Each structure stands twice: as C-alpha cells, then as structure tokens.
C-alpha cells in the first residue's frame, strides 16, 4: 500500500492545501472572478457589435466581422494572449504601468467576443422574420425594430450559450499567467502552481482545480436547467393543435353551449 500513501501525499496533502487556502481565496479566486467578469463584459459589447455587423446588408460591414471572427476563433487562446500581452506591453506600460493584467483581460475579451458574436448572430437570426416585417408594417425603422423587438428576443434565446461562454472564460483565465502577473494579481492556477513549486507537492494545484470545479460545475447544471426551461416553454407556446384536437373542440362546443343555455 506504499503506492497509495504516495498518491495521497502527492495529490491530497491536506496540510499543504490548508497552507495555500488563504492565498487561493484572498488572491486567486478574487482575481479569477475579476479577469473573467471584465473579459465577459468587454466580450459581450464587442460581440454584439460583431453580430450586428455580421447580419448587416452591407458587405463592407459583414466582411470585417467575418475576418475578425475567423481569426480569433482560429488562433489558439495561448497564442492570442501572448501576442497581445507581449506585443502591446510597451503601450500598456505607458498607460497602466508594469502590470500585464489589463492586457490579459483584453486578450481574453477579444477571444470571447469572436464566439459571443456568433452566439448573438445565431440568436438574432433565429427570430422569425415575420417579427421584423410586422414592425416595418407598423412604421418602425429597421434600426428601431432590431433594437426594440428582434435583438431582445434573440438575446433571451442564447442566454444558456452565454453562460457556457463565461465558463470557458473562467477556465481560459488560467492562461493569463504566461504574461507574468504580479504577486497581488495572480489567479487560481498561478497561486496553486507557485505553492506546488515551493513545496514540491501537487496538492495546491489539486485544490486550485477543485475551486475551478466549484465555479464551473454548478454553472453548467444551471445552464442545462434554463436551457430545458426555455425549450419546454417555447415548445408549449408554439406547438400547434393537432387536427383531432380541433375536431374534438368543434364537436364539443355545441354541447357545451347547450349546457350553458339550459
């Protein structure tokens, strides 16, 4: 059973976990949420612009959006982070100082916006075209109809996909450590890795992985729950009555009316 004891000491050393736990909570978890939340907000803003450009009638708007999406979806995330983080470090130092934190957030937001833009575009295009035609028939402009009617419906339909994208951003935030974050800016993975290097034990990394699971697994089940609710609600709202149900209602309605009159 020596191998079992070795496995526990390597991966489940609770003393090593307890030593790094305050730093994981106070520094790693906080920075992971800050990086993920900021990248998600910027990604949503840029993604919405890309989605509107992607469905525009002008090819001069569609083509740049398509090129942007293909590039940032096609490149590996770590390559994009290194290109942005190291290529624009001179500009970041003039604005933000020596911290690469803002460039890491920017790189993640550029990656996320390419996916979020496609999510928004699919959601907007899934709205029945009759909605837009009805708005135009009521005298609304194309922009007003899209902003007030079509886009809100499209966003509601893709909320589960947006949460899935947030989960991906949380996991990709671990790649920001390649930029060499300051001690106070290190996220979960970097805190766990530093403690593992110092102690020669992988238990701090395992604890960092547990924190990632605590964040992502509940969100995954929440996405599945709301996705099922949206699908079920939409199915109930849009399911047409069968021919037999219509015939039954027509045949029963005279009897019901007769009963009410008597």
TrEMBL record:
Membrane-spanning parts: 33-55, 67-89, 101-120, 166-184, 204-226
Region (Disordered): 234-262
Biased composition (Polar residues): 250-262
A GO term, aspect molecular function: ATP binding
Top-level lineage group: Bacteria
Residue ranges of every copy of the ABC transmembrane type-1 domain listed in the record: 29-223
Keywords for the protein's UniProt record, in alphabetical order: Amino-acid transport, ATP-binding, Cell membrane, Membrane, Nucleotide-binding, Transmembrane, Transmembrane helix, Transport
Subcellular location: Cell membrane
A Pfam family assignment: BPD_transp_1
GO biological process, one term: amino acid transport
Membrane topology: Multi-pass membrane protein
Gene Ontology CC annotation, any one: ATP-binding cassette (ABC) transporter complex
Similarity comment: Belongs to the binding-protein-dependent transport system permease family. HisMQ subfamily.
PANTHER family for this protein: GLUTAMINE TRANSPORT SYSTEM PERMEASE PROTEIN GLNP, MEMBRANE COMPONENT OF AMINO ACID ABC TRANSPORTER
Name of this chain's protein: Amino acid ABC transporter, ATP-binding protein
Organism: Microbacterium esteraromaticum
Taxonomic placement: Bacteria, Bacillati, Actinomycetota, Actinomycetes, Micrococcales
